[in-house]
Amino acid sequence: FSFKPSALKITIQEPRQRAQQAPDYYLRRRQHHAKDGAPSRNHTTKTMESMSVVMNRWICHCKFLGVDEYEYMDIAEKEDIMTFLDWMLDTFPRIRKRSSVLEYKRVFFLIYRKSMKRGFDREAASEIHDYITGELTLSYALDTTTEEKPVLNGDDIYLILHHHWVHDRSKFPDEHQRIQLALMIQIQSYTATRPRVLAYVSINKKRIAAHYIGQSMDVNLTAQWNPEEDDFRTVSYRDVTLPFAKPRSA
């Protein structure tokens, strides 16, 4: 009932030769699948290390309560998991972020599935999640802040293009390449980040319909277009051609 990453071994099985078997064979296979329960997953070494940490804490929790860790996990309900999280926060004060508690919960369900050969009840798991994000977060003043990720936004694109058009002193064999480079910068920017971070305004369906359709007050037309789902294709990749021009010889 322990998880040791060093004990992991990769077994390479030869593929089965496909041939239809007798009916009794598939009936036995059905019994075999029913007996095995939930299929086990091949976890990565890092995941196995996390499972080992959580499992050791579950064992300590069960010893503190004076119960068997395996039998207690077998009959565990949502209240038992909530109590385990309470005990863990009381015992390990260095756990201060809500994201860490959610990760412990996720890893515990992996252990539960691997050990009990079945998944934890989904409705109960959802209530445990609500308990973590609600009462548990408030009771233990868990940190809910997230670190900002360095993603490209509209201001960054503006600075890059401004430098390209105003301050860049690079010489191009053909000035058309300067225009093409600006377009390539925008294409790379739009495909390398989330589109939402490049927009600072909410979607106005009437203004978009007026721009693309021409009649913003025509209900019949605007109802047929959904700016959140439909693709207006103002500029698509297939509409852009970037010809390669060889530099002129001196």
Automatic annotation (TrEMBL):
Organism: Rhypophila decipiens
Protein name listed in UniProt: Uncharacterized protein
Lineage, opening ranks: Eukaryota, Fungi, Dikarya, Ascomycota, Pezizomycotina
